[in-house]
Each structure stands twice: as structure tokens, then as C-alpha cells.
Write a structure and sequence with these properties.
The complex is a heterodimer of chains A (256) and B (462). By secondary structure, chain A is mostly helical. Chain A is built from nine helices and four strands; from the N terminus they run H-H-H-H-H-H-H-H-E-E-E-E-H. The termini of chain A are far apart. Chain B folds into three domains: 113 residues, no CATH class; 131 residues, no CATH class; 143 residues, no CATH class. Chain B is globular and about 115 Å long. The chains are: A mainly alpha (256), B alpha+beta (462).
Chain lengths: 256, 462
């Protein structure tokens, strides 16, 4: 029983990270993902805040799932999510103002984020608190990882470097923003500013989706080929067995 | 029915309870974070002010103004002394929406000094936000001046133009003492019959004169009345003064017109009223505020001198001065008959008394319409209308073409098309105008026709 529960917890947590990644697999929450992934730091910040809102709302909705009447589920979820988003907004503005400015309206728009509301309706109101917490955590981490991948590509290609300290002051070294030149140096610059623009976000997102689709298709093809090979081997074995049976009968007859 | 009511009441109650708890949580967090947020904002504003005026120790309350772009200003102090003003404005231009900036303005040697710009909301989109900062704001802040302000073609032209619009208005507001300047009303005060005026045109290299407005008695801007000069300076006792002063008449003895006190640290109403009753240079000597009178006198003397040398003087004489800079007087227009383009000429003298033997040359006024040009853009046949003045000197047998000044030009392909040729011509005047370059051929041919006719008139003793 315990093992079954542990397996369910594990499944709740892991599913959202890769297998059902909200951004790359479910293609949810693309609008903020494309808008705030110009910078690596903003993407991490958004990911953390998003995960916090998702975990908290999942836990509370799961805890209240038997109290909230079915007729007012959606309004109640929105009130819960809005409360957490407002809290996150205020705390962010107070303690990480640069992140607050950088995320702009997309932080407030978490209230109506389809991943948050989707997990509340599809998972939290049907499962226990621990599973809901793990589901929120898994989806939050999955979304954050997706944002990180897009932002890394966009910031490096778009600006030619990776900067730290613009949003999180503790990443500064000696009070200075750290800029790691990757595609840019003295006298040379291979950056493509298009990637720092909204169009660049779409291109990166599209290319990553294409790569993931190709990998998925390749895996499917391999699985299908393995299945075909196994079926062929089984059929071959059966044929060989069928051919061998009369010979064996004859041989046995000869002995007699 | 009762069950349904109970159900509804239960749902509403639960929703209200969730909402109430949420509200309480938000209120608690707000109480915790709002002082921190307020402090952050104050620090941010202070940091912004410090970018503009590093020396400031305090900033006064924000004063609202109803500019087109500028919405407020605050006075920056070092100790108790005002060191400048910080203007906040918002402008949209092209794809740039709500570019919000702060800009400093201060005074040094009686002149407005443009201060640094700090962006509060970068309204540029799609990567232009960073371009406008790196290619426009940073170079401007490194050396704030009219030149760096004008360099809007930086790769983010719309955003830079929005910033420039705010800074220009802030400068005008600063020079007018804070309120939105009613330039139309002021010019009407100076020239009662004024119906139109040019935009403010910058004047460089003068002690007090920073700008002039050419004033006309008709909406078509053909009947020139005189010019209004914007004059800024500081009195010997440290009071900043900005005047708008009218100058008109001939270059030999420009007439002092009325003045308007645009900005003054002291009340000059009585002195200005007395002066405007009978404007003259000596009137300033009678001012109750002697230091302001002395400054105003110097300012108007500079304006009159600029006018007499052709700076800001858009009368016929003003244009002729561009052809003959040593000219001190000119005859009235002498009408020509039997000509196609050239309708009048003037005689330029090196002597204000226009005595015989001091003639420098003639200046011909010509105008015409070019052959029809049909551009590829399908806009139809375009005829250029050009009017100009050209100088001709030397003997009748071998006249010398002098410089020419374009008075009006609507050549196809935008402004300055013919102006480019005129610049090249003026470097080396030649009658073969259409060989100067290719393109805008019909305008060049028209100018060539006017020059040829002027030469013919000169050879004919006219």
C-alpha cells in the first residue's frame, strides 16, 4: 500500500517535469513564456514565482476540494489563485523590484494562467494535498526548465552574452553586473538581435518544439521497429517450430 | 425550493469566506510590504534625480504643468540654492508609445543648459528599447547639447524623437519660467498685425540670442514684419532673465520693437510696460530695476546687431546680406518688365547712405515654375515652384555671377533637393546650373533660366 502511494507521489511529481511538460508538451502558458524569456534571470524569476503560485493554489484547492461546491468551483479557484498572485506581486515588488519591473503585466496575468487553473481543475480538486503539492511542484519545475531553455538560447543569441545581476542584485560581483561574453567580444559580435525581439521568441520556441517532436517521432519509430522486429522474430520462431515438428515426428518414428 | 436556496446560500457563503480570507491575507501582506515598496520608489526617484543632478541635496514638491508632453517639474536644490529643474514628460511617436523620461534643465552664464535624461518608462518596443538607450540616451547623457539631442537617427529614431520632443518642450518651459509659453500671444504683443510666424529657429554663437521667430502679416508668410528674438541672460546681481524682443525695419538702422518678459526672477511689469509705450534703446536706462534694464539693453542691442547682419532677418535685405555680407544698404526693389522669371532687382551698397560709387552689385529676384515632371510613384505631373535671389556684380560686359538664396522651393523628392544644388553652386557660381549634378533636372533648368535672364538684365544695364 505504501509502495503504491509512493509510486503515485513519484508519478505526480515527475509527470509535469518532462513527460507532460506544460510548455513543451501541453503547449500551455506560451504567452508569458515568449514575453519574459528575453533574459535568463527574468525567466528564472518568473519560474520561481509561477511555481510558488501553482504549489500554493494546488495545495489550498486540494485541501478545500470537499468544501467548495461544484457550482462555484471556478470562481473559488480564481479567488484563491488571485490571492496568491497578489501576495507574490507585492512581495516581488518589495524585495525584487527589478524582477517586478521586468515581468510587468505578465506577473498579474498569472491569475488567469491556464496552467494554474488547469492543474486546479484537472488535478488538485480530485487528488490529495500531498499529490497536489507534488503535481504543482513538478509542473512548476517543468515550466521553469522550459523557460530557462528558451531564455538561454534567446539571451545568448540575441545579445551575445549572458548577464547576471541585472535582476537579482546578489548575483553581482563587487557591485557590478556580470556579463559573460559568449558570441561577442572586442571587435567581433555574432549576436543576432532578432532573438531578443518577440519574433525571436517565436522562432526559438518553434525550433525547440520541432526538435522535441522529431525526438518523439524518432522514439516512436524505434519502438515500432522494435515491436515489428519482435513480432517478426516470434513469427519466425513459430514457423521454425511448425517446420521442425514433422521432422521430429519422423525421427521419432525411425527410432521406433 | 428551500433546498435550492440553501444550496445557493451555502455556495455564496463559501465563496465569500474564501474571498474574505484572501482579502485578509492580501491586507496583511500589503501592510508588510507597502512601506518597503514606498521606500524603494523613493530610493529609485532619488537615484533618478541624482543621475540628472549629482550635487542635489533635496528636491522640491512636484509642480504640475499642462505641456503637450511635460506634465510636471520639480526644483532641485543644493542646500537652499536652486541648481536646476527636473521635468517629467511622456511622449509617443511612431511605434514608440508612452516614452516617459525625466530631464534636467539649469542655467549657466544666462543660458539654458540641457541636463541629463533618465528614462522612467521605455516605451520603445521590439529591441528598440535597448537601442535607444545605447545609441541615443547614453551619447546624449555623455554630453548633453542641442547637437546630441538632434542625433535622433540612431537606429531607434521613433523612440529618440519622442525623447527629443519632451526635452525640447522642457527647455521651452524652463525658459518660460515653468508655465506653458503662449508664443502666439507673445508674438501678437510684439507685432499687433501678426498673422503667422515661423517655428523657433536656433541661433548659435551669440551671448543672449538663442532663437528667433520670423513674423508675417499674412497667413501665407509673404509679408514679413520683422523678427522676435528670444534672449536669455543673467543680471549682474544674479537674476535670470528671458525676453522676447521684436526687431524690424532696415538693416541700416533696425527698429527696436516691443518686448515680453518671458521669465524673470524679479517683477519687471512696470519697466516693461513703460518701455513698450515707446520702445527705444535709451528707454532701458530709465528702468527702476537698473540691473535688469542694463541686461535688457545689451540683449536688444545684440538682437538688433544680429538682425542687421542678416541673422534672423528674413526681409529682402536679410536675404541680400547672405549674398553680400558686407552690404550696408540696398535700394528699393526696381521692377523689370519684359522678362519671364526675373521681376525685380535691388542695388546693394557697402555704404548705409547708399552713395554713388559704393555699389557692390545687383541682386535679382526671380521666380518660376519648372517643366512638368512625372515621377514613377504615380502621383502625377509635378511642377516645381521656385523663387530665389541671385547676386550679379562686375562690369556689364563681363558680369560675375554671385551667390544665390532660395526663398521658396517645392521641388519633387522632398525638401532640400534644389537646396543641395544651390549649396554646390554657391561654392563656385556658374551659369551652367544643370551640370552641377544629375537628378532634379527640371528644377535645375528653371534655376538656370532665372540666372540666364538675370545675367541678360545685368548686361542690359538693369
Amino acid at each position: 500500500m505504501d509502495q503504491l502511494k509512493r509510486s503515485q507521489h513519484h508519478e505526480s511529481f515527475v509527470t509535469g517535469i518532462i513527460k507532460e511538460n506544460p510548455l513543451f508538451v501541453a503547449v500551455l502558458g506560451t504567452c508569458p513564456a515568449l514575453a519574459i524569456t528575453k533574459s535568463f534571470e527574468a525567466a528564472i524569476g518568473m519560474g520561481i514565482l509561477f511555481t510558488f503560485v501553482l504549489v500554493c493554489s494546488n495545495v489550498l484547492i486540494s485541501a478545500l476540494r470537499k468544501i467548495i461546491p461544484e457550482e462555484v468551483e471556478t470562481p473559488a479557484y480564481i479567488v484563491v489563485v488571485a490571492t496568491f498572485v497578489t501576495v507574490v506581486k507585492m512581495v516581488c515588488e518589495a524585495f525584487v523590484p527589478a524582477l517586478y519591473t521586468s515581468l510587468g503585466v505578465f506577473l498579474s496575468l498569472l491569475v488567469v494562467n491556464c496552467i494554474v487553473l488547469g492543474r486546479a481543475e484537472a488535478f488538485a480538486n480530485k487528488n490529495g494535498v500531498v499529490d497536489s503539492l507534488l503535481d504543482g511542484l513538478g509542473n512548476g519545475i517543468g515550466y521553469t526548465l522550459a523557460l530557462i531553455v528558451i531564455s538561454l538560447v534567446r539571451e545568448i543569441l540575441g545579445t551575445g552574452m549572458l548577464t547576471f545581476g541585472n535582476i537579482f542584485p546578489f548575483l553581482k560581483i563587487n557591485g557590478e553586473v556580470v556579463a559573460l561574453p559568449i558570441l561577442k567580444g572586442a571587435g567581433w559580435d555574432f549576436s543576432i538581435s532578432l532573438f531578443a525581439k518577440p519574433a525571436g521568441g517565436f522562432i526559438v520556441f518553434g525550433v525547440i518544439m520541432a526538435i522535441l517532436a522529431a525526438m518523439k517521432n524518432s522514439k516512436k519509430d524505434k519502438e515500432a521497429a522494435a515491436k515489428r522486429a519482435a513480432a517478426y522474430a516470434a513469427a519466425q520462431k513459430a514457423r521454425e517450430a511448425a517446420l521442425a515438428a514433422p521432422i521430429a515426428a519422423k525421427t521419432e518414428g525411425g527410432v521406433h | 425550493m428551500k433546498e435550492l436556496t440553501q444550496k445557493i446560500l451555502r455556495s455564496a457563503g463559501i465563496l465569500c469566506a474564501i474571498g474574505a480570507v484572501g482579502g485578509l491575507v492580501i491586507a496583511g501582506v500589503n501592510a508588510w510590504t507597502s512601506p518597503i515598496i514606498a521606500q524603494n520608489n523613493a530610493d529609485k526617484a532619488s537615484a533618478t534625480y541624482k543621475v540628472i543632478f549629482p550635487d542635489l541635496t533635496k528636491v522640491g514638491d512636484s509642480v504640475s504643468v499642462s505641456g503637450k508632453y511635460v506634465s510636471s517639474y520639480a526644483i532641485a536644490y543644493k542646500g537652499d540654492a536652486e541648481i536646476g529643474r527636473i521635468y517629467t514628460g511622456t511622449a509617443s511617436y511612431g511605434q514608440t508609445v508612452n516614452m516617459k523620461i525625466m530631464v534636467g534643465m539649469s542655467t549657466a552664464n544666462g543660458k539654458t543648459v540641457l541636463g541629463k535624461v533618465s528614462i522612467l518608462n521605455n516605451g520603445a518596443t521590439g529591441g528598440f528599447d535597448t537601442t535607444v538607450v545605447s545609441n541615443y540616451v547614453t551619447p546624449y547623457n555623455a554630453a548633453p547639447s542641442e547637437t546630441t539631442l538632434s542625433n535622433v537617427k540612431c537606429g531607434a529614431t521613433a523612440a529618440a524623437t519622442a525623447i527629443k520632443m519632451i526635452v525640447s518642450e522642457a527647455k521651452d518651459l524652463y525658459e518660460s519660467g515653468g508655465a506653458v509659453e503662449d508664443i502666439d500671444g507673445e508674438i501678437k504683443t510684439l507685432f499687433a498685425t501678426a498673422l503667422a510666424h515661423s517655428d523657433g529657429i536656433d541661433i548659435a554663437g551669440k551671448t543672449y540670442a538663442t532663437k528667433y521667430y520670423a513674423v508675417y502679416a499674412d497667413a501665407e508668410k509673404t509679408n514679413y514684419l520683422g523678427s522676435a528674438y528670444r534672449l536669455s541672460g543673467s543680471t549682474t546681481d544674479g537674476n535670470a532673465l528671458t525676453l522676447l524682443g521684436a526687431i524690424s525695419g532696415g538693416i541700416a538702422s533696425p527698429s527696436y520693437g516691443k518686448i515680453v518678459s518671458v521669465k524673470s526672477a524679479v517683477d519687471l511689469t512696470a519697466d516693461v510696460t513703460a518701455y513698450n509705450a515707446a520702445p527705444s534703446a535709451t528707454q532701458f536706462d530709465n528702468w527702476a530695476n537698473a540691473t535688469a534694464g542694463a541686461l535688457a539693453k545689451s540683449m536688444m542691442a545684440e538682437a538688433a546687431s544680429a538682425y542687421a547682419s542678416g541673422i534672423g532677418n528674413l526681409s529682402s535685405e536679410g536675404y541680400m546680406l547672405q549674398i553680400y555680407p558686407t552690404m550696408k544698404g540696398a535700394s528699393d526693389a526696381i521692377a523689370l518688365t519684359g522678362t519671364t522669371y526675373v521681376s525685380a532687382y535691388y542695388v546693394a551698397y557697402s555704404d548705409a547712405a547708399k552713395t554713388a560709387g559704393t555699389e557692390i552689385g545687383h541682386v535679382y529676384y526671380g521666380s518660376g515654375t519648372s517643366e512638368g515632371f512625372e515621377p514613377y510613384d504615380g502621383s502625377g505631373v509635378h511642377n516645381s515652384h521656385i523663387s530665389l535671389m541671385v547676386g550679379i556684380s562686375g562690369t556689364m560686359a563681363s558680369p560675375l555671377l554671385g551667390k544665390l538664396v532660395l526663398l521658396s522651393d517645392d521641388s519633387y523628392d522632398g525638401t532640400g533637393m534644389s537646396g543641395d544644388y544651390v549649396s554646390r553652386y554657391n561654392n563656385n557660381p556658374t551659369a551652367d546650373f544643370d551640370t552641377l549634378s544629375t537628378g532634379s533636372t527640371y528644377s535645375a533648368r528653371l534655376i538656370k533660366g532665372i540666372l540666364a535672364e538675370a545675367l541678360m538684365s545685368y548686361k542690359g544695364g538693369k
